[in-house]
Specification:
It is built from one helix and 17 strands. The strands form five sheets. Strands 2, 5, 8, 9 and 10 form a five-stranded mixed sheet that branches. The protein is elongated, with a radius of gyration of 24 Å. It has two domains: 105 residues, Immunoglobulins (Immunoglobulin-like, Sandwich); 57 residues, no CATH class. The mean pLDDT is 83. The structure holds 2-acetamido-2-deoxy-beta-D-glucopyranose (NAG).
């Protein structure tokens, strides 16, 4: 009798521990510049020892069984996973447009059950482009295909020289002809391609 109660208690404890196991990804989407390093924050709670199998995978690229990113030639040598106890943060270096996709993390419990986050993180990798919109005056814009985090400060270069303008737009006059490129502060080395502008004054 006493033995049965112990077994019941043990099963309840195990069930409780099992249900508490989870993966938490704190952001749903991330936008990153080509060539930058991306960290996808991740935490997990596991009742299993830390040497259980664990891996990051790309959701759409995995038709059948998810493929461990660190074994995928596309990511070889560019990804690492934190080895801290309950930290599963993924660091991806030198990101490319082709890295855009949905990522998730999973670990295997001692019962050989995989546990992952219910939603993956959508990563979008963007380049920077100088685009022009003709409104009242000629306006240059440093554009990206997704919204970069932390309200970035844009840096403009004219003929390769920093213009000390940090706005999103640049208003030109006919003296401003030249070759323009832009960058985001902190990532100056990841500059956009230069665009040649012979600015013409608008008739209005
Ligand atoms: C988790 O690991 C990442 C990458 O190693 C690190 O940047 C981050 O500070 C860690 N987070 C915590 C809460 O320790």
């Amino acid at each position: 009798m006493g033995g049965n109660i112990s077994v019941a208690v043990l099963l309840m404890l195990l069930a409780g521990a099992q249900s508490q196991q989870s993966v938490t990804l704190s952001s749903r989407s991330l936008c990153a510049l080509i060539g930058s390093t991306v960290k996808i924050p991740c935490k997990y709670t596991s009742s299993s020892s830390s040497d259980r199998p664990r891996e990051w995978y790309q959701v759409q690229r995995s038709d059948g069984e998810p493929q461990d990113l660190s074994k995928d030639p596309q990511y070889l040598g560019r990804v690492s996973v934190s080895t801290w106890w309950n930290n599963c943060t993924l660091t991806m270096n030198n990101v490319k447009v082709s890295d855009s996709g949905v990522y998730n993390f999973r670990f295997r419990t001692w019962r050989n059950k995989w546990i992952s986050a219910s939603f993956g993180v959508t990563l979008t990798v963007t380049d920077l482009k100088v685009t022009r919109s003709n409104t009242y005056r000629t306006t240059l814009r440093c554009s990206s295909t997704c919204t970069l985090p932390n309200n970035p400060t844009y840096i403009w270069y004219r003929n390769g020289h920093n213009q000390n303008t940090n706005g999103l737009y640049m208003y030109g006059s006919s003296e401003d002809a030249g070759s323009y490129s832009c960058a985001v502060r902190g990532y100056e080395e990841l500059r956009s391609p230069a665009v040649c502008k012979i600015l013409t004054l608008n008739s209005h």
